[in-house]
Each structure stands twice: as structure tokens, then as C-alpha cells.
Structures
1.
Amino acid sequence: MRDYEKPGRSLVMARYGMAATSHSSASLAAVNMLQAGGNAIDAAIAACAVQCVVEPGSTGIGGDCFALISPDGSDRIVAYNGSGRAPAAATTDWYTQQGFTTIPRQSPHAVTVPGAVEAWARLLQDHGTRSLGEVVAPAVALARDGYAVSSRVGRDWINQEALLRADPDAARIFLPDGHAPKAGTVHRQPELAATLEAIGRDGPDAFYKGERAADMVAHLRGLGGLHTAEDFASARGTYETPIKTSFRGHDIFECPPGGQGVIALMILNILSGFEGRGDPLSPDRLHIEIEATKLAYSIRDAVLADPAKADVPIEWLLSDTLAAELRSRIDLTSCLDDIPAFLPPDHKDTVYICVVDKNRMAVSFINSIFHPFGSGIVEPNSGVLFHNRGQSFVVEAGHPNAIAPSKRPLHTIIPGMMAREGRVEMPFGVMGGHYQAMGHAHFVSKLLDYGLNMQAAIDLPRLFPKPGTREVEAEATLPAATRIELERRGFRIVPPSWAIGGAQAISIDWDTGVLIGASDHRKDGAALGY
């Protein structure tokens, strides 16, 4: 039960349709679409297109997306992989010969062919009821006429001034007057408005073929990239079979690798052997969650990759045998040291959207440019800001995730879905780059092990173990007694650069017909319903 004398958010409740996103304008666009007769896919993509304008540091049409869809509220869930591929000419040998040991962030080599626009068009064609033009219209208007920069967006924008200043076109568009626009000011992106309008009118060919594609290819090649017109023209996402695990009588669904959804399921498998009771923020419980995360993530970077190009042992990763082996290594008297380190880039950004419509189609949808403002590279004519997802590749011959022709990199962005007894109970997601797998497991455990409602689970303090060290990033709201005890056990608690992640979720009460939504206070969004 919420204490109404304390600051916080109430659960949002409605009967017919609901959307939860990290930006109020996106939630409004989704609900408007639902009220106009659109379905959950129409609404999710309308919201995403808006966020590609009003949250330019978090997402964009120069990025990738993934989706989980229940067309009818059942547990017959469809997964779509809308991630892009490396250029056909990209080989590990080429990068090695050029002296690369890693992929630089602000370089064309960090740019795989963006998959988002193709995914939007395909999902609308197969599952939607509205045209692409109708769906992107709200985003076009905001990009053309201007939008008010929101609080969290404005704060994150300021942190990326140096990156944006290093690219003349990024600086022109995103640093008007030489600086990031402050929260409460109006910002416009006319080039992006024209590109979105063209996509709405002519479909994905307006992005992957023709003049705009030629401009993007020329721009990337001019910076030393290997991209070709054929790389863009051949961009296609794929339908895939979701993976799942059972946790406390519920089925938890994720997209399969190359995303890290399997790691969220691995953490839940480890946690399934520990009883959840008492305080969800007790030192023992957080110790277990930290170590389960460290163990699962240590495996992640060794084996996760594009399964079309590498052998990814999914059955082994989700096996009870592996979960038991990892669980046995957790010692509640002290933190583990002998875990291989992974060394990913720090701090990424993303937007997550969930929508449920009046027919109970449920959509879990995530769209990202990876780091805040991605690669920081903008194609000037189209206004497209490119992501830097290619940084997730490894430049090491023989590694499962080594960069290779037309290969997809390891992805951090993961939509989630919970079901029970043949019906969807909750689309959910937790943003925050590498945190997402831990975030999914932490959130689900707080619901099912501790009986918290969605908003209470989202509001809890978050922490995340840093790779290869004893350091654990912890938000300032973590209780002091818990912090002291974790440090006594050998963990080094440090503050994060900013609040960890962001989450949204919608629960379907099949008995009453009511939808219940929650949205994270760490972002600028809201759950809205009608």
C-alpha cells in the first residue's frame, strides 16, 4: 500500500487501452492513436517515432529496435529483431590491418545499417491497422514545429556537448547557439521532419534506397566507412522464436540472442534457487542479486553473438545445470573475485515502450541508438543521427562476436513479456544499456518474490556491479545499513554517473478487465490510459 504522504507515483488504471513510455509526449501520442481506433502496434510505433524526435539522445531512426508482440493477449508471442548488420565489406582482418583493436565510438565503423525504420514498416504491415504516414505524423509535426525539451532529456543533452561539438552537423542541429538547449526551451529538427515525412509517404525505401540512402552512404564512406548502397538496400529484420524461462509459476519471455535477454533469464534461473522473503533491500538479497549478475554477465561476452553467424549455446545457457553451478559459487560471507571481466563501453541510452489495446494485443517495444547521442555522427541532409552499436563487436579473429560481413553485433536492448496459464500478464522493460538484463531480473523478482506492485518495484533503489571489479554502482537511496554491510563483505559501493535505467510496465487484470500501468520517476515519461 502506497504511503500518500511520501513523494512518489500512483499506479495508473484504465479499462480500454494504455501506453507507458519514458516521455509524456510519446505516451500521449500512443493513447491518441488508440483512441482514434489504432491498435497496440500502431500506438507503439507512433510513440517511438515521437521519441526519436523529443529524446534525440536516447533513440532515433538511425538506430535499431526489438519487439515482443502478443497479437491476442495469449502466450503465443512473436519476436522481431530489428537490429542492423555490419557492412558486407567489414572483416576482422580489415580492421586488424588498419590497426584497430576496438571499434571507436565516433567513427563510421561504429555504425551498422540502422534497422529501426524497416522494423516499423514491417510490423505495421503485418500487425498494424494504420499507414506508416498516419503513425509518424505526430513525430513529423514535433520535429517541424518544435518541441519543449524536457527535464531529464535536457540534463543528459548537456553531458554530451563535447561529443556533439566534434561533428559539425551534429553541432549545428543539436547545439543551437553553441550549447545544448536547456530544459523548457523549444528545439526543432527540420531535416529530420522532412525525412520522417518522406518515410511516411514512400515507406522504408525513402530511408534505405534513393537520395537519402545515397547521402548516408556517401557521408559514412567519406569518413572512412565501408558501407555501400547495397548494404542499405538489403536491410531486413527477422521474425524469431522468443526464448523463455519459468519463474515462480510465470513464463518470462525475451528475444533470443544476439540480444542479452537470455542473460536476464539466466539471472532469474539462479535466483529461483533462493527464497525471496523479508526485506527486498536486505544485504543478503542484494548480495545474491549482485553475484548472480556478475556470474551471468561473465558468460555473456564470451558466448553471445549473432546466432546466424556463430554458435550460441542457448539450451546450455538456460539449463538448470548451469544455473545450479553458478548458484553454488555464491558465498554470502564475501564477494566473489574469481569471475572473468567483461569490458563493454560505459553508459548507454534507449527508450522502452509498452502498449496494450482494447482487444488486449500487448506490445513490448524498444528502440535505441546505444550511447547517448549514439556515434555523434549526423548526415546533414536527412538529419539522421547514427547509432554506435558496432562498438559492441569484438576485433578478435575467432571470437563469436567478432565483426564480420553482414553480421549483427551483441545487443543490450531487450523487451520483456510475462505470461501465466496461456495469457499475457505484463509487457515490461527496463532501459539502461548493460544494466537491462539485471534490471529485468531485479524487477520480476521484486514482483513475484516480494509481492510488490509494479510502481513500488520500479521505485526501489538500483545497483549494478561494475565489470571485473569489486565495485557496485548504487543509487543514493540505498539504505545506509545495507550499504555498510555490503562493504563489510568486500563490495565497494560507488555512486553511478546518473540514476540507473528507467522502466515501464503494464499489467492486465483479466478478471476485472482493468489495465494497470507504471512508469519510472527516473525519466520524463508516464503511463496513460483511457
Note: The radius of gyration is 22 Å.
2.
Amino acid sequence: MDRTSIVGIVLIMILFVTWQYVTAPTAEEIEMEQRYQDSIAALSDAELREENDPPVTVAAGDSVVGIDSLQQAQYRTRFGAFAPAATGENREVVLENDLIQLTFSTKGGTIRRAELKNYAKVVEQDDNQETKLPLLLLNDEQNKFEYIIPVNGVAGDGVRSSNLFFEPTVEGNTVFLRAPVTGGGYLEQKYSLEDGSYLIDYDVRFEGMNNIMASSEGIVQLYWENHLDKIEKNSQYEGNYSTLYYKPIGDDTDYCSCTSDDTEELDEQPLKWVAGSQQFFTSALIADDRFSSAVLTTVADRDRLPDDELKVLISEINLPVGSSASETFGMSFYVGPNEFERLRAIGYDLSDVVSFGSSIFGSINRWIIRPLFNFLSSFIGNMGISILVLTLFVKLLLYPLTYKMLVSQSKMQVLKPEIEKLKAKHKDDAQAQQMETMKLYQEYGASPLGGCLPMVVQMPIWFALYRFFPASISFRQENFLWANDLSTYDSILRLPEWIPFMQGHLSLFAILWAVTTVIYAYYNSRHMDYSAQPMMKYFQYIMPIAFLGFFNSFAAGLTAYLFFSNLFNIIQTVVTKNFIIDNDKLRAKLEENKRKPKKKSGFSARLQEALKEQQRQQAAAQAKKGK
């Protein structure tokens, strides 16, 4: 490299160093740039933590401090006219009566948790011991209850009220939570609670907001995401009885699926109320007038939920809000137990959230079984004794039919020698046996189906009780004998989870039902003829064993009822057959029936003609085969 090149490089380096020194920022400019970078970093962190959260949170406790001009500009961009409510202190406000304690959060202005004072959550420990905890609703950290308000100058859907800080004011039994708006307006949520009630008077007020609303459609969306935590011991049945219910204006109550993910798009259907209901507790939002439309979603897929979470209920509800300077949308918030009479008193078919069923069985539960239990429990202190008395009442009511059934069985017993003779006479011809047996029954005035009627009559009661006990809060945590809770299974022994169908426990009432069913079947079938259908003899013993896995996890109230029913059946059968029915008189009556002239009914004649034709065809086929 020559001398000229070296001189040129040195001069360039001198010029570069001189330029760096001249253009370098002052200490004040460096500090300002650092504050700017810190603000941008804080904004990015907030966006990552929660969509639409305040962009900067520099907190001492829960209070936001140190807001500079840049941050204020960011708040105005993100919250528009709601920028004054974008910062504040997150505090809790309590409102309570003799039944419920409500805790509100000033951030979002919503119910943070609701404690029901007269109810408890029971947690079963590994040693089979149970611990009672306070029963809380609406307390999951992931819950959301927010209004999405379209605001001028704010991108996206608008401002979410869950990101705003509300100023609380308590006046007697009323809490006012107000979020200010630029220009003197505000968004206000008002909650009022009377003594002796779970019903909260709830109003949302839009004051001086007509000029800042970006939408001219007059709609504000309420987004309600309710994560249901497990409360009951049997979470499987709790899940099956938990979903979103809704009441369309002028139509019957409907609901989302209870067992799988579901979405109901009610775009053109005004609603009176929407309720997130668990097995025994409900959180319902009731419009004074109506909600204009809604999209309701339930998430029940266990693969999408944590172990301690039952379901997620999402309600996207549209509120019709006009364009006037002052708008109030009135509602009521019910947060409490599924007590049928209490819900019925509110009206609007809200009692439909009690899962008694919507068919005829639901009507039996609502208007027959429920009032009957209420009557019994009014003077019987224990619900288990009430079940025993109800079983006795049903058995006495059906005894005339039971008596006819037992008489029919005794007729079969008296005719058994005659039937044996027919079998011996036609031992190689099953068709002839069947035809002659039918003729014998007709001659003596007996019917093999005479014992089925009492069972058929009782089936609606059984099906109704199948829905009644897991849905009626009257049996929740009610003790009886070894059962601690008649609304769920009565576990007396832990079992390994790998044992199929037993769900890790053993229910004593279910075992007693199965044992007494086998005993009753054996006693009744001793004199019955199963030669035509030999498998039926064994099926009656296999059936209760097979159903044991099903009833093992069901409500102890139902399995106790079935056990008591079997006991009364056995007692009625033994007493009636041995002390009331006289077999000698019955035999004489049958002989008298045989001597009477018979008039064949159309059905009997057709049946015998069909049997004769079948016998003729069988004989013709055998003759052809012999040739």
C-alpha cells in the first residue's frame, strides 16, 4: 500500500470519529430514549399476557402509577373515551344477606365469587373420610363476564369492560360500580340484594355514551364464560346434569347437550333468560324485557378440560341498547340452589333447570313424586325414612294388581301337573305342546301373562325416580344408615380402578338390591315352566348381576327405593301365597271354569288357527322328507 492510500484511510477515520462525537445524543436524550423503549417493552408484555389488557401496568400493589404522556396516548388508542377507566386499583367489595355472600371485583365490576351459606362442598379423602368446604360459585379464575362496547377510534370489536376499573359505592343493600368516560359519561353496573333471596337485581347503565359508540345498530354484546368446577362427589353424574338452559320468548325452555360439546346459534330468537346450571346449583341471567339474540356454547370434551373442571359454558348475549344519551338495561341475576319452589316463584319457567325430565316422567316427578316427598318430609325428619314410607305407599296402592299377579302365578302352579301331562303326550312335537297348552289355559281361565301388569304399571315410577333422586336437592348430603348422601352412591369400600364397571367403589344398597332381586326371582320361578324358553330361567339371575355395575354409581336414594321395593315384594308374595290364597279353593274354581261353555275370542281363535296351520306345515314337511 502506498503513502497516498495510507493518508486517505487515516483522514477517513478522523472524519468518522469526529462525526460520531458531533452527532452523539446528550445524557437527557439517552434517558428519554430509554423511557420510550421501556414503555414499548411494557406494552408488548401486556399484550402477551391478555388480549385487550391495559398496555402498561407498573403497579405498587394493584395501583397503576407513573403514567407518562406516551402511555396516556397508548391508553387513548386502546380504550378511546374509556381511557380514564383504564387505570385504577383492583379492590373487593362485599354484599351479603342471610343466604349468600357476594364478592365483587372493581376491575371489571363483576361478581368475583358467591358463597352459599346454607350449603357445603364435600371432598372425599383417600381414607374414605369426607371434609366439608365452603360452597362457592362463579369463583374460577378463568371466568369472564364482560361487555364488548364498540367505541369510536378503537380498533377491533371495541372496549371490554373486564379491562376497566370501576369506582365502587355501597348504599345499604346496593353496590354501584361505575367506570368513567371522557366528557362526563359513565358505564355503571348496579347490584341489589334483598334478605332471604338468591335473586340479585342487576342493571347496566350507559350514561352519556351515545356520542362515543361506534355502532349504530344499538347492540352491545355480553360475553359470559363460566368455568364449572366440580362440586359433587360423583362428578360423572354432575357433568351429565350440567349444561346451558335458555328460554326463548313465546316458546318452551331448551338446553344445550349435557354430554358433548354443543353450540346453539339463536340469531333470530329473542330470549328471556340464560342459565348455566350444574346438578344442584344455577347461575341465571334474566332480562326484564328480553335479550335480542345469543350464541350458546358448552365445552364438555374431557380432553379439552383440566381434571378439576367439569365444563365450560359460554354465552354470547346481545343486549338491545338504543342511541339515547341515557340507557339502562334491566336484568336479574340468580345465583343459588336448584330449589324447585324458589325457582318456580321467580317465574318464566326457570324451574325447568331442575333436571326432572321433559317427558311424562318429568311431569310425574314435578307434580306427583316431588309433592309427595315434600308432604312426607314435613313430618318425617329423615329423607331415608321418607323413601321407605313412599315405597310402602306405592306397594299398598298397587297391591290389588299384585294380588291378581300372585293369583295368576298360583293358577300356573295348580295347572302344572296338567301341563306336564301334555308335555309327556306330545314330547316329540313342540308345536302341539304349545297349541294344547294354550287350549288348556283357555279352558281353565288362566293366563301366563297375568303377572306382568304390576311390573308394567310400576315402570313409569321407576323411570321417574331414575331422574328424580340425582336432580332433587332435597336429598343432597342427606344421611341415612351408612349412606352419607342420598343423591349419590353410598360407597362402603374402595376398589381398584382397573375393575370394570365398578368405578372404584362398592355400593351396599346396590348389592342389597341385586341380592334381593335374585331371591325374589328364585322364589317366584320355582313352579314356573321354562321348557319352551330355558334361557329365561338363567336370565332372571344374570340380569341383576349385570345391572349391578350400572346401579353401583347411581343415587343411593334410588337403590334404597329398589331394595325396599324388593323387600316388600318378597313379604307380600310370601304372605299372600301362604296365608291369603287358598290353593284348594283355587283348584275348585279352575275346575268350575273348565266346565263352563267357552266363547272363543277373535284373537284366541286366530292364534289357535295359526298354531294349527304351523303344525300342518310342519307335518307336511316331515312327510315330504320321509318320501
Note: The longest helix spans residues 399-425.
3.
Amino acid sequence: MWMPLFLVVFFEARKVLKLDDLGREILRVAIPAALALAADPVASLIDTAFIGHLGAVEIAAVGVVASIINQANKVTIFPLVNITTSFVAEETTVKEVVNNEEEEEEGGAAQIESEEEEEGSEETGESEDESIGSGYMASSESNGSPSIDEITQISLQTYLEENVSPNVINEGEEREVRRSGRLKVPSASTALIMGLILGILQTVFLTLLARPLLGLMGVKSGSAMLEPALKYLILRSIGSPAVLLSLAIQGIFRGLKDTTTPLYATAVCDSVNVVLDSVFILACHWGVTGAAIAHVISQYVMLLILFCKLITHVELLPPSSRHLQLSKFLKNGLWLFARVIAATFCVTLASSFAARLGATIMAAFQVCLQVWLTTSLLADGLAIAAQAILAGAFAQKDYHKARATAARVLQMGVILGHALVVLVGVGLYLGRGAFSEDKNVLLMITIGVPFVAGTQPINTIAFVLDGVNFGASDFLYSAYSMVLVASITIGSEFLLLKSNGFVGIWIALAIFMLLRTIAGFWRLATGTGPWRFLRALDT
């Protein structure tokens, strides 16, 4: 029963660093994706460095707000982006297969016509056009075989019935890959509509409930953190539509296996953010207000770049409302919504506990958490590659490629995780002075270094396993397993906070990531759900 686990982890392990077709495909998607994902947290680290020199109260206030915004963004972005990536990858893969099949059949038709022309010319000496017509009619009428058009239609219908999931393509849906030189992908239109609606709702939610949310995070009316936190939260909420639309577009590009475009857009966005931080914080002395304004402007710049690039590749107006497939998004989005609520609540609760321990501990926790999330998200590059490639493999029912892809990205994840231990440990210890000048804050950061660095291998595998299971569209299992993991984690956070304080919070977060890894492995280990095929494949 446990054999599939070892098959996936160790399958063709000697090829883990080999640049074969699969290796190149993974790296082509993973490297730009990892850089793009890391670019935004790096910008947040730069923001933290700028704000950190304003004082411990300011950085603590921004840390609380960052946790709130992270929770809100994860709840909306995570389901949207991951569903979009999977569905776009499935749709484009199926349409490529169907298009190739049609091209092959057209080529076969041309060859048949050519042969009939030669035979007709030799036997009757008829003209070229008559020869083609008589040869074609003779072959179809004499033996009762279907015409070329009928063969194409039958072949296409058989493929759709036997190989395409109802979630990928609906009966009667147009099967042309390109229209007016642009891709026709219904999931792209749906993702943009959902992103816009969710972005507006998030702005309204964060603005109207700013004070209550800060109160839940431990920032009460008498706290010195309240005023800067309130300003920062309200201003940052204005950027929510840009954030969600940008991430929706990134999901579309990921599904198309184009992670280079989001990388360029993110690099420009972060560069704008850093420049504006320098102007608004250092030159204009606007403090946390300037940091928030800089961040919002940079997000809208990123949205503009991505949207202008998208409309040159994808047709965004579907032929009719039924092509939007809203029910498909909502059904799977519900499972991922539950999953991300459970996952991010654990991190948000940890931030809340840190805030209750005082501004010094919260400031140190914010620095450690930003580094922890930034480096761990490097593994999301592998996760995105796994999701996009596996979604295509499952759509084609290419289970051999699915197994090979899952194995390769997990093996790469192991190597990356151990490399990050050294990189993060040395980097955070030597560079902690860039985030604060407060000796007490620096002391607490030093205490957090072993936890931030030591959990990197676990974090990496957990993120990669997320991509593997999302690529298999195993959203239901991902949801209920995460709810179980979160329930255990929340209990451990309450227990460890009372006895160990700052260290207890980090122990609880380490337990959280370990349980996530075990839950992700369990599905493959038992060979259940979409991974049932592992039992049937030859070892």
C-alpha cells in the first residue's frame, strides 16, 4: 500500500539534475516563476528595512497590517490563481491535442486525394479536378466508408468523450485554438471577472472594518501602534483590485507556461516601489503613509503592464456567458477557499500572539516572518511548474509523464530546501542589522534565526506537494486535509505561547509545516484519488 510513495519520491532519482526534456520544461517554468514570487516579498523586506529605521512602533504596526492583508489576499488570491492555472493549462493542452489531430487528419486527407488523383489520371485520363472527384466518390460509395469530414468529426467526438474531463471542455464548445491571432481561453475571462469583483469587495471590507480587525490582532485603542497601523491599512486596501487582477493574470500566464512575463512585470513593479519608498519615506518624510502609497502605485503599474501584454495573447471577450464557466470556478474555489482560510489563519494567529507580546517582539517576528515567507516561496516556482505540467499530463491521460514530473519536482525540492538552510541562516544572521537598529529587536531576531533557517527543507517540500496535488485538481483533499492540520496547529500555538513565548510561536509554525508535508505525502503514499494510477504503473 505504501509502495506508490517510494515510486514517486525515488523514481528516476539519478536524473534529478539532468537537463533532459522534462528537466528543461520544469526549469523553464520554475525559474522565472520563483524569481517573480520572490520579488514581491523581497520588496516587502525592503519596505520593512525602510520602515524599520523609523522606529520599533512603526515596524510593529506595519507587521500587524501585513498579517491582515496577507490573510485577506490569501483568502481571495490563492483559490483564484491556482484554479486559473490548472484550468487554463487543461484547456490549452486539450485544444492543442485536438488541433494537432485535425491537422494530421487534414494532411491524411490531402494524401488520399493526391493518391486518388494519380490513380484516376492513369486509368481514365480525366482532368485533375474530375479525377479527384471520381476517385473520392468511388472509394466512399463502393465500400460505404465515411467521408473525410465524417472521419474528422467522429475522431474528434471520440477524443472528447473518452479523454476530456467535463471540466475542460463542454459539448458544443468551439475547438479553435486561435481567433484573430489570439488564444481563446474561457477560463481567462472568468478569472478576470472574479478578480475584479473580489478586489472591490476586499477594499470595502478592509476599509470599513479596519479598526475591528486591528483590535482582533491585539492593537487596542490605547496602543501606540493604532494610528500608524490604521493609516497603513486603509491606504493599502485601495490597491486590492490591482493586486487581485494582477494575480489573476499571472495565473493565466502560468497556465500557458509563461512565467517570464509575470517576472518582468513584477521586477518593474518592485523597482517602482523601492524608488517611491525612497522619495516618500526619506525625502518627503511621510513615514508609513508614504510606504503605503508607494506600494499601491506600484501595484497599479504592474496591473497595467500585465493587462497590456495579456490582450495581445488572449481574447478576453467570450462568445457568450455560458463560456465563462462560473460554476466550475465557484465549485473548486469553495474547496480552496476553505483550505486557505485554515492555512493562513495559523500564520495570522501567530502574528496576533506576537503583537500581544509587545512592539519589540512583534518587530522581530515581522522581520523573521518576512524572511521565512520570502525564501520558502522560492519553492513555489517548482510548485507552479508541477501544477502546469501535471494539469496538461492529466488532461492527456499521460500518467507516465505525471509520475515522472511529480518525482522530479519533489527531488528538486529536497535539494533546494537544504541549500536554503545555509543561505537563510547565514544571510539573516549577518544581515539582521539592515532591518532595525534596536538592540532588543536584533536579539530577538537572532533567537529566531535557527527556526527560520532550519524549517526550510520542510517548507520547500510542503509547497511543492501543494503544486503536485493542485496539478491533479485534487482540491477537495487539499481542503479537508488542511483543515485537520490547522486544527492541530492552532491548539499547539495556544499551548506553546504560554510556556515558551516567542520561541513557542516558532515551534508551533514548524509543527504546522511538518503536518502540511505529511498531509501532502499521504495522498501519493496511499495511491488514492487522482493518484490511483500509481498502483498500476510498472515500477
Note: Residues 51 and 59 are 6 Å apart (CA to CA).
4.
Amino acid sequence: MQLIKQPRYDDRGSALFTALMSTLVMLALGLALLAVVDTQAQQSTTERTRDRGFNLAESVLTSEAFVLGRNWPASAVTSGTGTTSVPVERNCSDAAAGVSGNLSTAAAAGTPAALIHGTLRASFTDAAFAGATWQVNVCDNAASAVWDDALLTNGTKNWDKNGDNKVWVRAQATVDGRTRALAGLVQVRSTAALPSKYGLATGNVTDDLGSTVNNLSTNALGGVLSGLLGTTPTVAPDPTAPAPASGVTGLRCGVTDIQDGALCITGTIASVSALPVVSSLLTGNAITQIPTVQSTDDETIAQLRAQAVASHTYVATSPGSASYASAPACNLTGSTAPAGTRSRNTIVFIEQVGTTGTSGTAGGPGDQYCFVNVGSPGLAYKALIVGSGRVILRGNNTPTAPAGTATTPSNNMFYGVVYALNRQRLTTAQGGRGLGDAANSREVLVIDQGAHVKGAVHADGKSAKVTIVPPPLTVNTNALVDSLIPCTGLVSCLLNTTVKVVGGVLDIVNRLISEVGLGPVVNGLLNQLNPQRASYGSAITSDVATANALTVYSASGVIPGTFKDLNPTG
């Protein structure tokens, strides 16, 4: 019998199955782990991109907070987003109100974006920032004490409209398609550019009473009409801040300096024809020596210039003349300063008056006259600043002291600060004309033909001279003779007639002095002249509020606790 072998079944194939299953499990785990790693890598990339956007946005915010300290949007026209046309008040969300840039391209020179764009491009040079964009919006904080995105839609303005030296700054940056936005409340510190106690600060001031009165004082009366000016001070204090809080006249020349034939320490107040110097011409004898050659430092002057540039009221050059008599009208507009932007909220800054003649000589370019008509109507600026040159504020030659306010200027009045830098005294290396600053006076401001200033007047340098020219005082010789030699009889009537036909005013006054004596003649003249002088009033009236409104800005930054990340998961 033959035995048939049966196939033998054993477990030798189980190892392959186990290995296969293990491989499948490991593959699944590997794929899962790979997915996790890939997700984490993507999340890490996203996080890096978000961080780049945050860093760029934060840099935009802090950079804008810094530059606002030198370019504070104190008014609609200084908000940094105006054009050469008359600026309009903008909402902070308006496309034209925003400032933006792309790190791959340079910003146009002179634009608001250029103030920070160069720094941003220099700081973010990594290839990951190629094509990154940024935008910043400035919004007034009056509507909200905390940032609210509604500020971008509720008509909030793009300047410090409530005047509290605080604005919201919203900074946004987009890097590789991802956008981050931050906001912070920026505050700036401001200080008055000039000390408000001075109604007048200069090296020399002259009060010209007119040729007739000057000749009488000098030639016939020996200067005894000096009391005439004492009745009406050249510089009057602010009624709300009596001297010495305001209305002080400060002289820059030294104790031994000679100005128009007089020692500066006595107060160089005189007429063109050397009317005797008397400090009583000043309110309450409020006269001091100023140890500084200029009213403020170069950094402050640079900021005032920058404010004029921002409001399109900066004028590089104005026509001028070496002759006071032939002075042309000052250029108050320039190529980028439309008339509509000039107001009591802006600074008009004329860098140079005159372009003709020989450079570096008296009366040459930068040392010439131009005039500003304040006769009809009056003018109101925050300040009129002349860098190098001479300016005439010209009235309409009427004697009445004007009323009115800065918002409704009256004829013959300039409301604001007038500041003559007298930079022609500086060396060429300092940006001047090299004319020096010796005691010899240089007339840099003329308050002419009955004009007045309500605010303050400053003129830098020992050589600076301010001249006051009221409407000419006149003498009615017939009335003077009648008051001193009444026609009451044959002899007196004959003498009265004889004196009247002697000749000019000077001859008549000399004859009267010989007939009735010096004292009665002086009193008779003062009775006529004092009312005329009083009707003109003070040439300069201090206004502390106006002087303090001329401000410059210093440190600025984000107020702690106001920083807000607007899209932390963006």
C-alpha cells in the first residue's frame, strides 16, 4: 500500500504579513508626521511673515511718531498732505490724506512719504521685504480717547484739530500678501519760539516824527520836544499782561556800543534827525539789554522755516531794491504758495529780499527793501519772517489807531509776529552775506506810513534797526501864532501879522521864541502835536497770546498704554 504525502501547513508566511503590516503602519505614521511637519513649517513661515509685517508696521509707527515732532499737523495746511493748490481739510481716511510707500522703490523727494521712507528702506534690506508696502494715517483724537476703526469712516480729520498736541497714528504694512496694522496715540511737546515779554527786541529803534517836527526839535528847540513821544509809548504792553510781563523793549547792542551817536545803555530811541534819547518813550521805562545776538537758536529758526514749507508759504526770493523809496512789493506767494494759504494760522517766510547788485555789499542781494501793504486791508499771519533782507510794513498814511481783531483785520494793522533775522550780517559760511554785525545800524524793518503791529517785533543782531514812521505831524503856524500872540490891539495885531509872514515853519518858530520865549512856544507846539501823535497810538502793541502761538515742536512719541495691535491674527 502506497502512502500519499499530504501538504504541510505551517506559519512561515506570517512574518511577511507582519512586516507588511508594520510597513504600512510606519508609512501612515510617517505620512502623518510629514503632514504635521509640513503644517508646522507653513505655520512657521506664516509666523515669520506676520512678524515681518508687524516689525515693518511698528517701524512705520515709531518713525512717523518721531518725524511728527518736526512736522506737527497743527492745521489743515500743515498736515503734510496738501498740494500746490489751496489745501482743503481732509478726512484721515481719504486716499490723498494717507502716506504710503513700497520698499522696492524710492519715495519722491520732498513728499511726506520721503520723511520716513528712506529710513525704512535702509532698515529692511532682507529679500523677504522686497515689494513690501506700508501706509500711515494720522487722525485727530477728539472723537475717541482709544483707537477705534470708526475713526477712518466717521469724518475724523487728518490734523490736530482740537489743538491738544495729540493725534492717532495708524500704521499698516503688507509683507508677502499678509497685512498687519498697529495704532498709537502720539503726543508732541511744544514751546513758544520767542519770549512773549518782548514787544520789541532789536539793536536800535528810531521813531521818525516827520521832517518838519524833526527840524524844529533839532534846529530851533534844541530837542526839548522829546516829551512828545513820552505821551504815547512806541511799544505798549498787552492790557491783559502789564509790563514787565509784556511790552518790554530789549536792545541787543552792548553797553559801550554807539548807535546813532548815543550809548546803547541809555536806550537808543531817537528820531532820524537825532531827537534826544529818552527811555521814557517806553511804557514804564520797560527797557532791558539782551545778551543774545538773536532771539532764538538756529534749530528753532529751521523749524519755523519748515512750517512755512509745509503750508506752502515759503518764499525763496522776493524782488527788492537798495533804495527804501523805490522798494517793490514783497513776493508773498512764491511758486508754491497760493494766496489762499496765507492766514493767521500760517508763517510766511521770505528767505531773501533782492537778487541784484554786488553780493556781499550793503544794498546788494539779500540786503534790499520790499514792502508789504497793510493799509487796506490789514493782514494777519502767525508770523512774517524775513531771513536776509529788509521789509517795510506800509500803511495808508492815516493817523487813527486801528481797532479790529486778527479774524477781522482793520486797515493799517499787521496782526502777528514780525521777525527780521538779519542774516545778511552772517558770514557766507554761515549762509549770510558777510556784512558783519558791528554797532552801525542796519534798518531791517520799517513800520511805515501809519502802520501798526499787534503781536511782537524781533530783529536779530546788534546791527538790526527798527524804524517807526507815523503819519507826518503837522504844525498849523497861524493857529500857533494866534495862541501865543493874540490880536487884541494895534501893536499885538501888527506883531501877529508880521510873525505870520516871516517865512516857513522854522522861521516862524524862531521868531516866536524871540518874542514870547521858549517855554510858551514848546507848550503851544505840544498842544498841537500831542493829539496828532495820540491819534496814531503805539506803533507796536504786545499781544502775549499771539506771540505764544508761534510755537516749535520738540520730542514726540507714542504715549505708553495706547499702543494697539489691530489684527494680531492677521
Note: The radius of gyration is 38 Å.
